[in-house]
């Protein structure tokens, strides 16, 4: 990609930057990490002209180049350092046309850094509905840049944006050479002598933000401090005065380029649909009621709609296994293929429908602008439990995955509030828990029973588990707040975007990326562990496995056919390496109602929670067949008999005990690794693992003892 032109998308949060990124790149996207930073970066390819591709880099949303959080630091480390691996050849600043004055602050700063810039005015239609008419041609002359009017969600104006980008790349318009506020010439000269020639404003940025910029070492940072002392330069005072001055200049530009029809006609500001809907959706009472109702319906739909494709996949995998076993010779290779590889693949594919439906709803809520309202109304509740208002973002994101959710805590300014949020976020039920919930709920909650004759009880149970995780996260945060004695006051400032109709292309891209990540990232782990587990479950120490069939025949002379095969398979599993390991940990988990088979699944699922289902599928494939020929994982688990009681193994007590255990347990190596990377210490991942495992064990113990 060295010879490919790179363009950075920059903008305020909710300005439509991500929508424009999806429109320009479609499915030509990839996710990676910024060099030296464990933070997701989205890059994509945009065909600017026939035969000419442009790399698009989607940077985190910021309000100003003076950072107040870690993700904002990332942006200035890229824009302020021409030698950075992701430094752009050009920037497209996406501005919300309905709030132009505030959005132009960031634009003016990026332009003054010396980066060729195009201004993309997004949501022009919303501005016009509010009574504002923008003369974009005049605005382009005033700002000395190319200006393009776009509607990022609908893909309108992309042609005009292409022309603006081509023209800007060709002419590379100079930035505004004048500083927003004058400083001593010899100060800028001293910076440039010591640290290299740069645009005056970039030199000033280095001076004011040198402690946050990774391009400088400790000695250089001390040199900046000496320069500031020598010239008696106060960065905080300058930043404040600069912001005021920029807004004065921006106000004059907006006054000349924007016609306010409301003022012209001496009319009241236009009441938009957003204003009307917000009276209900962010109401102090109805806001919570509506949010809970939406969640309830969402989980009902996830459970109900996904049942049909899941049953088809489950049955199809079982039939494929039976067919292969019928045509292939009975050999270790056949066993590894059917009970190892295919059982593992089936354990991945069966949950694709639910993952797809879950991300469909999450994407719809984000696309319409409702998710921002959720964060707004939840802020008040968060504070009662000692969390920062910005903690809402990672907690809500945790429904999808804890890893990016923990990374999103970088927007939280208070160190203690950020640490608490990191520690409690994994208690939110993520999509990785969904496969476990699905199988166990199907075993212990009757499928045909309904609540009030309308709502599926299995969906109600799923909704309850998600709520349980949320409230436990709040309770844990309150306890941690007391332990850490965090008393800092923080503020949650967030702009609420207007309500918009979802663009289904963007929804489809979100679903596609999420399902692909599940199949190729979580799926690789599940399949690999399934194959390794098959090996450990198929072989045992010494020659014990070879003698099992003979021993079973001697002890049970009356057994014939399927019964004999089941007994032999069960004995082989119990005497395998996996069986020995399961027996070793069985005393510790027996109080929870778990046997050695479940113990094996608990251990393997430390790699990733969803591995539990793949493990159980492999174990029960090896442990014998049930009566029906096409035995699915649910049927195998349903047919399992508790040897101590002679009753079904997965009764209500054991099922709910396992559900509670997985609702609270830290069963994800990736999350622990992310906590380590974000806190730069093993202390906090160990605390996280310890308190969540203890909470899961004690809660599961209580549930089992009460229900059994």
TrEMBL record:
Main function: Probable transporter of a GTP-driven Fe(2+) uptake system.
PROSITE patterns for this protein: G_FEOB (PS51711)
UniProt-recorded name of the protein: Ferrous iron transport protein B
Classification via Gene3D superfamilies: P-loop containing nucleotide triphosphate hydrolases
Species whose genome carries this gene: Aquirufa salirivi
Record membrane topology: Multi-pass membrane protein
Main location: membrane
Family affiliation: Belongs to the TRAFAC class TrmE-Era-EngA-EngB-Septin-like GTPase superfamily. FeoB GTPase (TC 9.A.8) family.
Transmembrane feature ranges: 285-306, 341-365, 385-407, 419-445, 457-480, 518-537, 652-674, 686-707
Keywords recorded for this protein, A-Z: Cell membrane, GTP-binding, Ion transport, Iron, Iron transport, Membrane, Nucleotide-binding, Transmembrane, Transmembrane helix, Transport
Entries under InterPro entries matching the protein: Fe2_transport_prot-B (IPR003373), Fe2_transport_prot_B_C (IPR011640), FeoB_GTPase (IPR050860), G_FEOB_dom (IPR030389), Gate_dom (IPR011642), GTP-bd (IPR006073), P-loop_NTPase (IPR027417)
Top-level taxon in the UniProt lineage: Bacteria
Compartments where found: Cell inner membrane; Cell membrane
Occurrences of domain FeoB-type G (ranges): 4-171
GN (gene name): feoB
Pfam families: FeoB_C, FeoB_N, Gate
